[in-house]
Amino acid sequence: MVAIPFRRHATAMWLRFRLNEIGPLASLLAVSLFGFGFFKLADEIREGGSFGFDDRLLLALRVPGDLAQPIGPSWLPETMRDITAFGSVFGIVYVTACVILYLAITARRRAALFVAVAVGGGEILSTGLKLFFHRPRPELVPHGMETFTASFPSGHAMLSAIAYLTLAILLARVERSRKVKAFVMGLGVVTTLLVGISRIYLGVHWPSDVLAGWCIGAAWASLCWFVALQLQRQEVVEAPDPPPPA
Following DSSP, what letter does each residue of 147-161 receive, concatenated? Predict the structure, then answer.
């Protein structure tokens, strides 16, 4: 009988500690690490520098003697074009809208608004960075699809990191099951990585563009995580964690 109240008290203390201490510290650490990685890459690009691995990796993904032909089976280029669509503006907007609708239906309207602002702000940041650096697209190999904007950072890699990592963190906090939490987080990370890899495989981005997109996207998602935790502490945004079981 004594063990049950103690367990409830311990669980409540752990939830408060995780929200008030571990979460903010982890999110700020992630912002610092990913932000530092992006600024190191951006500083080199701004000074007109280049990265040796850019050329080597793009050429390694092409058939020797025929740079128009990507390596792998004949169905792989089309599959990569399908994958890259998950990082397109339409793909991001569609998935984000579905999650926002889910949050609104489940009476988390302020959380839904937060997701809209987080992903929308990431889109504005991506556009601004592209206009600022204005790096040309790689001409080393033929492109596997049409492109319309500058190269650095990769908008697909950045937006997929922002959207899928932010949504994964939010949805993982809704679930009680650790297996479901791990699955949702893993799905967000894998989707982000696949989108970036598809951009390199199709030859529409330098690998450093994609790496920078991952870094700034993950940093933005981590910053959004930190802000969300602070808003939850102040009860401005609904805390997605369910109450501990009785």
Answer: --S--SS-HHHHHHI
pTM, full prediction: 0.80
From the list 94, 203, 217, 223, the residue with the least C-alpha distance to 156 is: 217
- What residues pair up with 63 in beta bridges, in sequence order? 66
Alpha-carbon distance of 245 to 174, in angstroms, equals 14
Alpha-carbon gap, residue 44 to 121, rounded angstroms: 25
Amino acid, single-letter form, for residue 160: S
Residue 137's CB: how many other CB atoms inside 10 A? Answer: 17
- In the chain, DSSP assigns E strands to 62-63, 66-70
Query: In the structure encoding, which two tokens stand for residue 126, read together?
Result: 């991506």
Q: Which residue has the tokens 């950045």?
A: 158
Neighbouring C-beta atoms of residue 226, cutoff 10 Å:
19
**Residue 197: per-residue pLDDT:** 92
CA distance 156 to 162: 10
Asked if residues 200 and 143 have their Cβ atoms less than 8 Å apart, the reply is no
Q: Which of 224, 222, 225 is nearest to 30 (CA)?
A: 222
Whose tokens are 């793009």? That residue is: 58
**Per-residue pLDDT tens digits for 141-171:** 888 788 777 888 888 999 999 899 888 877 7
Sign of the C-alpha dihedral computed for residues 229, 39, 93 and 76 taken in this order:
negative
The secondary structure element, H or E, covering residue 62 is: strand 62-63
Distance CA 210, CA 157 (A): 6
Cβ-proximal residues to 58 (8 Å cutoff; 6+ apart), any chain? 138, 140, 141, 200, 203, 206, 207
What is the C-alpha to C-alpha distance for residues 43 and 41, in angstroms, rounded to an integer? 6
